Amino acid sequence: MDRHLKDGLLAVSLALAGVLSHALPHPMGVSTVGAIGMVAAAYLPRRLMLVPVLATVLLIDAVNGYYSALAMSFVYAGHLLAAVAVRPVLGKIGIRPVAFAAIASAVVFYHISNLTPMAMGFYPNTVEGWIACYIAGLPFLLKGILANALYGGAAFVIIALTGAFDADRFAAAKRH
Predict the structure, then answer these.
(1) Angle CA(167)–CA(41)–CA(19) in degrees, nearest 5?
(2) Cβ neighbours of residue 79 under 8 Å, at least 6 residues apart?
(3) What is the mean pLDDT of the chain?
(4) 25 CB-near residues (< 8 Å, 6+ apart)
(5) Among candidates 57, 52, 80, which has minimal Cα distance to 67?
(6) Is 90 exceeded by the pLDDT of residue 163?
(7) Which residues contact 143 (CB under 8 A, 6 or more apart)?
(8) Helix pair angle (3-23, 33-43), 10° resolution
């Protein structure tokens, strides 16, 4: 199969997996989007890396309903930048890089998405307000780390066990 076709199929498959997983009952904050970003960052060329993440959140919001454009911009930016941030970490796939990527992805998303309540005026623009805002978001950070570790870890294990991507393909994805 042509490499471009494989890349396209992987991008579409990741987006569909992300959307379908949100159709299943899950605790708030325990999302597959971070894991989708981790796998996309590891195995897709740069030009396609953000497509599954963006498609997932756009389709989920299309189904669940759109909300404040300001809030959506921070949430979308958080998801996209989290995927970008973990790409260098996933230069090699293993327990440590995947665990670090799970944490890094959640931390990046937490820092960016938590700007939403500040920008929308839910907290005062003071040191105390910023601290209160980020403390209030800590449970979601922990859920994000858990979700990334579980879903991302499972995805990488399945990929390793099935031999879906060989070392040459992974190296080619990193170059583009």
Answers:
(1) 120
(2) 33, 34, 37, 53, 54, 57, 109
(3) 90
(4) none
(5) 57
(6) no
(7) 27, 28, 29, 30
(8) 170
CA-nearest of 56, 58, 80 to 67 is 58
User: HEC states along 14-76?
Assistant: HHHHHHHHHHCCCCCCCCCHHHHHHHHHHHCCHHHHCHHHHHHHHHHHHHHCCCCHHHHHHHH
Per-residue pLDDT band at 175 (split at 50, 70, 90): very low
pLDDT value, residue 166 = 58
Residue whose tokens read 């759109």: 66
Residue type for 123, please?
Answer: Y
- Above 50 in pLDDT, residue 168? no
Q: Identify the pLDDT of residue 27.
A: 83
Does position 172 have pLDDT exceeding 60, yes or no?
A: no
pTM beyond 0.85: the answer is yes
Instruction: State the maximum Cα–Cα separation within the chain, in Å, rounded to a whole number.
Output: 56
Distance separating alpha carbons of residues 173 and 16, to the nearest angstrom: 21
